Amino acid sequence: MTTARLTAFLCYRDPDAMVGWITEVLGFHVVRCFRYGDNLAHAELRCGDAVVCVQADDRGYDIPSVKGDCVGAGLYVVVDAAEVSAVHERALAAGTRVLIAPETTAWGNFRVELLDPEGRQWSIGTYLPGQPDL
């Protein structure tokens, strides 16, 4: 397993609930967790080569609102096609807002777009960004 070279960090009002959603719906697993007493201060979650750090929102950050089917920024997680469908099913079961149901884009990405419970957008798909054209 390699160390991730780009890691996202996200601050959430309810970090424990978000760690639960990210693990249960998206299929990440917790690799580290730091608490101050009963409060989650920082958790590191991994899915393949992707790492996301969840932190407590102690400042009341603003999250962009949805316009159409997008918030204007989000996280993209590369998975295989079967996992796109599995994530979609788990998202529906969890009551997650689906912004774009599973589809294949013009550039060949089989993806699903989700809004997490605190309003951040997650794209789960098969496209491999950063690969040179052949």
From TrEMBL:
A Pfam family of this chain: Glyoxalase
InterPro entries in the cross-refs: Glyas_Bleomycin-R_OHBP_Dase (IPR029068), Glyas_Fos-R_dOase_dom (IPR004360), VOC_core (IPR037523)
SUPFAM superfamilies assigned to the protein according to its UniProt record, in alphabetical order: Glyoxalase/Bleomycin resistance protein/Dihydroxybiphenyl dioxygenase
The VOC domain, residue ranges: 2-127
Name listed for the protein in its UniProt record: VOC family protein
